[in-house]
Specification:
By secondary structure, this protein is α+β, with helices and mostly antiparallel strands. The protein folds into two domains: 65 residues, 2-Layer Sandwich (Alpha-Beta Plaits); 64 residues, Alpha-Beta Plaits (2-Layer Sandwich). The protein has a four-stranded antiparallel β-sheet with strand order 2-3-1-4, with helices on one face. Helix 3 crosses helix 4. The longest helix is centred in the middle third of the chain and has 15 residues. The protein is globular, with a radius of gyration of 15 Å. 28% of the residues are buried.
Amino acid sequence: MKRAKITIPDMQSEHCRTRVQNALGKLDNTVVHDVQPGTAEVSYSDEAALIKAIQDAGYSVEHIAEVSATGSNLQFKTNINCEGCIARVTPALDAAAGAGNWSVDTAARDKVLTVQGSDAAGITEAVRSAGFRIEKI
């Protein structure tokens, strides 16, 4: 099986994420690892079935990027705590890590920013330049 991060730009609300997670969870030979606003990370064997399931749920697939199964994610504690904060930091993080390669868990106490395989110093600078606190976990 391949592991990939899928960019799904029109999947933003909790309702949307639940719909996509349920659609992907019904696929044979597919494991859903994470679903965040705009992205899903899965292990799969049939890319066409994956895309079809997302489209049948009512969403579009912008990009599928293969990622390491062992993961090279960086995690940081931040004070990015709402959708407005995410909107403010998005241009800086997209430039530093690439669109779809990062997510913020605003429900977590530590507001955890997870970035797929990137430069910690560059991410730290990008987040600070957008006006937020950041600390590597």
